[in-house]
Amino acid sequence: MSPSDASRATTDPESSDSDRDGDDPGTTLRDAGPETAVRGDEPAARCPYCHQPFHEARFETLHRGLEHPSELSDRERAAFERAYADEGADIRRFRLQALGALLLVYFCLLFLYAVVI
Fold this sequence. Notes:
Number of helices: 4
Structural class: mainly alpha
Radius of gyration: 23 Å
Distance between the termini: 56 Å
Largest sheet: 2 strands, antiparallel
Shape: elongated
Strand content: under 5%
């Protein structure tokens, strides 16, 4: 039972067992996706296919390329590929910074250990 089914079962005591089990043929797993809380009144972008809100337009572009690839035009596919490459560069930069911080902490602790002992 998903969390939304559990909340529906606790708030609606007259719901039938078939509703709680998710046997409704009209709903799919994609329809029961996670709810996204967007700060502010209006989201920055919204997927035109599933209407999921996003904080930034680049997140919506990445979502469309990953979740709806067969529905993209050539222009949208090119925008997705650019956003995906930029995201990869950001991830590589973060990994290098995290490695640098880890090495800094390691050597500081090593020198501290050498001074104390």
